[in-house]
Amino acid sequence: MDKFKKINSTAVPIPIEEVDTDQIIPARFLKATTRDGFGDNLFRDWRYNSDDSPKEDFILNNPTYSGTILVAGKNFGCGSSREHAAWALYDYGFKVVVSSFFADIFRGNALNNGLLPVQVSEAFLHDIFTAIENAPQAEFVVDLEAQTFTIAATGQSTSFEIDPYKKMCLINGYDDIDYLLSLEDEIKAYEAQRA
Amino acid sequence: MSKTLFDKIWDAHVVAQVEGGTEVLYIDQQFIHEVTSPQAFAGLEKRGIQVARPQQTVATADHNVPTKNQHLPINEELSRFQVNKLAENCEKFGVDYYGLGHHHNGIVHVIGPELGITQPGMTIVCGDSHTSTHGAFGTIAFGIGTSQVEQVLATQCLLQKRPKRMRITVDGKLSKGVLAKDIILYIISKLTASGGTGYFVEYAGSAIRELSMEGRMTICNMSIEMGARGGLIAPDEKTFEYVKGRKFAPKGEAFDQKKAYWETLFTDEDAVFDKEFNFPAEDIEPMVTYGTNPGMGIKITGNIPKMEDVDNPTTFAKSLEYMGLKAGEQLLGKSIDYVFIGSCTNSRIEDLRLVADYVRGKKKAEHVNAMIVPGSQQVMAQVQEEGLDQIFREAGFDFREPGCSACLGMNEDKVPKGKYCVSTSNRNFEGRQGPGARTILASPLVAAATAIEGRIVDVREALN
What we know:
The complex is a heterodimer. Chain A is an alpha/beta fold. Chain A is built from eight helices and eight strands; from the N terminus they run ββααβαβαβαβββααα. Chain A has a single domain, classed as Aconitase, domain 4 (Alpha-Beta Barrel). The mean pLDDT of chain A is 96. In chain B, α2 links the parallel β3 and β4. Chain B is globular and about 55 Å long. The chains are: A alpha/beta, B alpha/beta. Chain A: Catalyzes the isomerization between 2-isopropylmalate and 3-isopropylmalate, via the formation of 2-isopropylmaleate.
């Protein structure tokens, strides 16, 4: 997993609630057996017509908006457990997803792939959308070390929660398996005690 | 100290504590399938490690398989490659694999219970969000991502934060024509698609107790649709009877010993939940959804909410536009193009018996395309033994071979753009059953009645 570094970036707004993982990556694009290339089909049916031509009104097809931060409405990532949703977002180039609420499994999948879910209040989310609406090139700063998200133009800042273990993993680029493999003796002891 | 059922099982599986409240949870059983496992096996290979406990993982092909001519090689190249990859990986790593045509093959959440692999008190995971189905047996069962599938393959453990506990109690007597599916659609419509996020749910109350094991599975199956990690129901005599005698269930004395432990699996009287809800069974009617998430459900005789009554008008309007429906209108009487009966929610023998009873001697409406996909080879064999397949065919239904099929539209079983499908599956997301498909979730009985009438009808009237 890549190490997570401090981010200064513009953001892409999707002010829709309940963005489910079937929208992020539809099931018919889950046939690959590797982790690569899912970004091409990110938000496939919102992004492309059935003849594969881009839908002009979708935000990812609008050159005014870009950046490594995606901002979306509440309950982002609900539905299927497909990790392909996190892979698709990361492969496309997003490093951070901001919402007022994340679905559990998506949050875990994102963290396991170096994609940082930043949960902010409903009011702060509204302020972020307003900042982008006023200036599509508005910059934001994500500081994982300090656990802060800042609207650069106004200096308005909020802190966000993250599990201390997952924070350490993101910063160092560690994954859970390295840690779990180090517990072999404990796992064997647990099995012996149960038997 | 008083404990909830959930905490009793969780506590029994904690291997170690990690700083910050994360725990190392031992996983008794993992199920894998072709779509969310290949990258996990690739991860093991990259690290040069083996599956730690191959006898605690079982594999099936279900998500990406055709439901016709399963005895032939899969036509679609990518699907064939993915399914073959699973077979290869299982062979290489020593995992039991039930491929297409194997008499144990079927939807992962159907075969676990029917083979007796799913047993009370277990921790169970699968790279599929509907793993909560197994909670019907009093297990902690939940869906995980592929990185976690790899973790369990590598170590038989997962790093987890203990979720909060919620109890949903449904007391009273269900009226005729109201099924388990209606109970869960009703609950989700009350709690919304995110109302359970961060929680593990215990379902309790006399209406839940009265349900068969298969009904309980339908309830637990859809826990994720309100955002909950999972749902579970305390095991009882019905549970023990269901498990007893199944292929991988403990036998003889071993069964009695297990049963003695299983009987301790209930929530202590004064145990405390973080959140509680109570619903009267009498308030539940057959349900249908009108929107693009499972929380957008109404009673079959009800109306879609009005624009001024919803919290999030933008999302609501987008949803209705996709569905081609209007705020405030009724769904009753609406003409329907497709009916899909199947999925890990409603593809078991009891579901199919109910459908057969209803459609016996009737004919589907001419304009409706109606499909029934059994949950497993065992369900299919039972259907054939009871002659139900004949009843389905005579009524004009297409009876297929097992798989996830049109629930998620990964194979060729899709609903065309703009068409309405009354579906017994679990998700009505945009494009879930195919690009542009419009899904209305309902019980097997509502689906059967819709197929016959060609429009949404109050199945209670049709039953009388």
